[in-house]
Description:
alpha/beta, Rossmann fold, eight-stranded mixed beta sheet, globular
Amino acid sequence: MFATLNGVRLFYTDRGKGKSPALLLIHGFPLDHRLWDAQLAALARTMRVIAPDLRGHGASAAPAGPFTMDQHADDLAALLDHLKVRQAVVAGLSMGGYVAFAFWRRHKERVQALALLDTRAEPDSVVAKANRDVAAARVQEVGAAAYSREMLPRLLAPASQADEQISGAALMMEAQSVAGFVGDLRSLRDRADSRPILPTITVPTLVLVGEADALTPPTDAQTMVAAIPDARLAVIPQAGHLSPLENPKAVNAALREFVRVVTA
Length: 264
């Protein structure tokens, strides 16, 4: 389905309509709503599950970037308005976690609970910022597909490298536009430091991380749990940075139980 929100045509999937509560799933970079296919299939039996393509991703339009986490957050608030959803359990993976932080800063009254998957609160270091610019130039040089093939192994646990279902991640990444890649890399480079807001998060929070996540490792997750009141930790076995794809059964179970408890 499509909706034009804040002047941009965005694609979204909405399953389990009429059910309560609503779970809003925010994908990471360089992905789209298909990251959540296993969650859409399993969790929509008991709740409403909404999974959009952020601007510049998937079937959504890719306006001139750079994008910002605040823009993405405002797009999602507009989507909830469009769907007449007052509050949602907001769940974001990696860059989607950064969007979730922005959503909390700008639209906290819309957040029933928060799930932060394979993400961190720290901003990029000076070196990481420079590497984002190098990556943006590399994408423009070789294209999204070639860069995706270079990037994907860093996202996966060693056990996932040969898993056939992960081929879906490769196809998803390779299908993203160069404009979307570059817009994301610049928004990742320029994102805010979310560490100061962690103690302000007053809704129930789940911090979930793959046990073999090399990009945002379990130590980052533990740091967030220590700083967020009423936060709980779930470590997903046999998973790296793309835990919803690598171990969907465990992620589904963790999300299902979290939503059940916090919305009971």
